[in-house]
Predict the 3D structure of the following.
Amino acid sequence: MKAVTQLSKKNLTQTRSRSILIGISIMLTTALLTIIGLSCNGIMKMNSHNSSVLYGDFHAAFTGISEEKKQEISVRGEIEKTGSMSSVATVELGKASGVLSYYDQNARAMSNLKMTGQSRIPTGENEIMVQKSFFKKLMKKKPKIGDTVTVPYRINGEGTVLRKKFTITGFLPDSEMNDLKQAYGAVVSKEFFEKAVPVEQRSYTLCVKMKKADKVTENGLKESINQLAEKLSIPEKNVSLNTIFIMWDTDPGAETVAAGVFIAAVVILFSIVVIYNIFYVGMIQKVQEYGKLRAIGMTKKQMKQMIFREGMILSGISIPVGLIVGYFGTDLFFTKIAGFSSVNESINEAIANTQLFSIPVLAGAGILSLITVCLSVKRPMQIAAKVSPVEAVRYQENTGKKKQKRKGCRQVKLIGLTRANLSSNRKRTLMTILTMGLSCVMFVTIANLCGNMDPAYEAKKDVKKGDFYLTLDTKLDDKTYPEKNLNRVQEQGLMNASVVEKIKKIDGVTRVETGKWAAVKVRGNEEEGTSVIQILSKKDFNAFVKSGLERGSADYEQLVKESGTVYLWDHFFDENGYHIGDKISMDLLDGERKVPLTLKITGSANAHLEASWAMTEETFKKLRVKGNLTSEIYISCLPEKKTAVEKQLRNLTGGSEFYDLLSYDDAYRTAQLGIGLLRDSLYALLFVIGIIGFMNMANTLITSIVTRKKELGILQALGMTNRQLARMLQMEGLIFTAGTLLISFTFGNAAGYMLFLKCKDTGMIGINDYHFPMAEILVMAGILLMLQIILSAFMSRKLQKDSLVERIRYEE
């Protein structure tokens, strides 16, 4: 056995270049499998361990719950625990507003209520905890724990304004969003809540965590929650599912695991082909040597063991290196792989606290790499065992079983010599081209997807026109605080003519366009609740609705004539029981008035609008609506004035919590970040796969040159110049490159276009219009060509270092 091992080591030493290429391929394969495994494990671990921190430790929230119903829910056997909170009163301080809320102990834990410094939860009737920014509105000095402050409030947002002195027991973390919207939250004690709000007027929000959630599927748990709500006579609109927490608490990462397994399978299959081909190309040059070993008594079993141990020796060196490279690669790029931006501090903290090191994952990656090598050498082992002593002694690479006639040429040309060499072993040549072609097919396929991801298209979903989009951030069906609903907020005139005029007068503003929304209730479809209908001009209708039409008609003149409407969420069209041609009756909410209207459904679209329905301006004008329903404003400005205009707009809108301002540049940067994260991860994976594939072409060229050293020496002795030799080697490489590009262009573009259409149907980020990814393909072709030229030049110079006599005398 020692002799077989020694032979394996000698073989590896003798064919050092091949051994290095195989080792690099194994190392890169291991590194990729490690990165895939650790990344998937890290994402699952981060979400599983931190999902309660990031999204709350509850599966659902039931709103509008009475004191009696709360007691009934808390004793249900299906529920592990509940936490109750209640909005006690509202606070109005000029432009700022706030809500005084009560949380019981469970609710504080389940909703991850955070405090700063030496803060403590209020227990006395006159104690309060709130954000410092809120206290600054009430106090002239900087607030400290122990200070007293007088707070004006209205119980349940109704009735007369009451004033009460509170002692500050602590602070909640400040938030930029709260400061921007001038809306704050405060925590009061149970004693204050119970004295301020009579039992019959109390309305709770109940956080609910179900028992044995990890034993059921995501859909099963959602169904259980909805069934429980039905048994308790809780309306569907009062049930809010914590979907992200449910997903990670029930089925932690099934999609992540599936994606990881798929990518790992692609890497393994590709690596098997590459490593096998490198072994095979090297073996066919050593058939005579194997025959001699068989002639002196080596058995078939020992021949197999020799090849197998070559693979194991290389694996023993390369796999540990690959595991180390993979671990540090994952540690370096985990934030990108996880797909999170750096804006959310809680997410950053969760990522930082995630332990990536995992012995089972590293062991699994190592074992998979070892299996990959074993499968790669299986066929070469069989080939080596079948070699007979007689066949080996007679063996020449370009001979076959059939007799062949040698064709002569009157004139020997470089292209003829190149073609003769490549055709002498067609299987080797085709295997190399197919292997390289496969990696390039994957690149072209992904390039057809990533090259068509347009951040501008994604940004236009949020800011459809102009540079800034000002809209109303409201509720639709808030029973507790109805003044926050769209129809009630519209009564405040936040987007009336005077506001529009102020925006037009801002220095740098070039164009201002407005849009109208209305809250509507569809009669006979109470499950849908209150929705929004958007009133559009002919220009906007064609731009936003007609372009996204999925079924029916969106012809503006037809809609005007038939008092028609188009449903804007086609995915839910059938689910809600709608049909083209149906007439639906609605109540349009004009403040507290209800305006009845009947519309005909003429079409259904995916329009990426905030509303559920669209109607024409002409149809709307027939309705005798008294209020101003302007709910969105698009603002265009001079490029050099963007910063100043944004500052003026934020100052103008800072007086109400209901304004929501979004800039096109911010939307574009957000889309660009999301697309960049996905694109960079995919291209990085394909780059490594491409390197593994290039190892195969490099091995073929090197083996071909080394085994023809004597032949090339004789050709030079007969008159071939060094320049002609270099050109011949470059032509061989160019044929490999041309074959690779032909395969990748043919199959890659076809597969890429089909992938593009599939992703467009699923609404993938940035996917809309298709264009041929010429830039990406030219870059790939350029890199492939450059690597091939460098390799050919390197081997030509290396060959010329030996004297002509040494090359002619060379024996393998």
Remarks:
- Residues 664-707 form the longest helix (44 residues).
- Residues 339-344, 397-401 have pLDDT under 50 and may be disordered.
- Residues 474-657 form one domain.
